[in-house]
Specification:
single chain, alpha+beta, 60s Ribosomal Protein L30, Chain: A, Coenzyme F420-0:L-glutamate ligase/coenzyme F420-1:gamma-L-glutamate ligase, metal ion binding, coenzyme F420-0:L-glutamate ligase activity
Length: about 250
C-alpha cells in the first residue's frame, strides 16, 4: 500500500532556519491509518526545493525584468530553446549550473517578496543529505529525503514534480535482465522511481495549499542505509541526450 500525506503547520522559512528542527514537530503530529504517528523507517520525506532554498539564503534581487533576466543568465550554462510571450517577455528553456534543463533556469518569482527571486539550492543532494542527518538526529528514524522542483517535459503539457536532490533512496530501478509476462527479456527499462515518488507527493502538497512537505510511506524497499548517489545521477549525460541536437549518431 502506498500512502502519502502533507501535514499542515509548516511555518514561513527564512534564511538560516534549521529545516530539520522546524519540520520534526510538524511531522510528528501526522497520524497514519494503522494508528501510528510521526515518521517511521522506510518513509520518504519529500521537500519542496523552495523552502530548502529559503533556508539556505538563495534569495536574490530581481527588481525588474532586466534584473531577473540577468539572474537567469547567471544560472545558465546552455540555452536550449526560446519563445516570445504575448506580453513581450521571452520564455527561456536552459540548462542550469546543476545540469537540469528547466524554464528560466529554475529561478522562481512566486511566493517570495516583491523585487526578489529564488535560486535553486546550490547542491540539492547535499541539502537532502543534511536534512536526512537532522531528521535522524532528532527522531532516531532514518527516512529517505527527496528535494523536488517542478518542470515541464518534452512533448507533454503540464508540469510535474521531480527529484533534484536525494539521500537514502534508490533513484532508479533497473529492470534490465528481468522478463515480462510473456518471458521476453527487458533490455532498456530503467524506471525513475525518485521522480515517481516526487510526483506522488505533489498530489498532496503544493504551493497553493501551503504544504511544502509530504511523507510517502510504502516505498521502504527503495530506502537505503547509506545516502546513495543522489539525484544528480538522474541527469542524462550529453552522449545519451537525443534532445541536445535532435539526432543521435551511432
Amino acid at each position: 500500500m502506498l500512502l502519502a500525506q502533507a501535514p499542515d503547520g509548516v511555518p514561513t522559512i527564512t534564511r538560516g532556519d534549521d529545516l530539520a528542527a522546524i519540520l520534526v514537530p510538524v511531522l510528528e503530529r501526522m497520524s497514519w491509518p494503522d494508528g501510528s504517528t510521526g515518521l517511521a523507517d522506510g518513509d520518504v520525506v519529500v521537500v519542496s526545493s523552495k523552502i530548502v532554498s529559503k533556508a539556505e539564503g538563495r534569495l536574490v534581487a530581481a527588481r525588474d525584468e532586466a534584473e531577473r533576466d540577468s539572474v537567469i543568465e547567471g544560472e545558465t550554462v546552455r540555452v536550449v530553446a526560446e519563445r516570445a510571450r504575448p506580453d513581450g517577455t521571452t520564455l527561456r528553456i536552459v540548462e542550469n549550473k546543476l545540469g537540469l534543463v528547466m524554464a528560466a533556469a529554475g529561478v522562481d518569482n512566486s511566493d517570495v517578496p516583491q523585487g526578489t527571486a529564488l535560486l535553486l539550492p546550490e547542491d540539492p543532494d547535499a541539502s537532502a543529505r543534511r536534512l536526512r542527518r537532522g531528521l535522524h538526529a532528532r527522531t532516531g528514524v532514518r527516512p529517505a529525503v527527496l528535494v523536488t522542483d517542478t518542470a515541464g517535459r518534452p512533448w507533454r503539457r503540464g508540469v510535474v514534480d521531480m527529484a533534484i536532490g536525494a539521500a537514502g533512496v534508490d533513484v532508479l530501478s533497473d529492470m534490465r535482465g528481468s522478463t515480462d509476462a510473456y518471458g521476453r527479456e527487458l533490455r532498456t527499462t530503467v524506471i525513475g522511481v525518485a521522480d515517481e515518488i516526487a510526483s506522488a507527493a505533489e498530489l498532496v502538497k503544493g504551493k497553493v495549499s501551503g504544504r511544502p512537505v509530504a511523507v510517502v510511506r510504502g516505498m521502504g524497499h527503495l530506502v537505503t542505509p547509506d545516502d546513495g548517489e543522489g539525484a544528480a545521477s538522474l541527469i542524462r549525460p550529453p552522449e545519451e541526450d537525443m534532445f541536445r541536437h535532435g539526432v543521435a549518431d551511432d
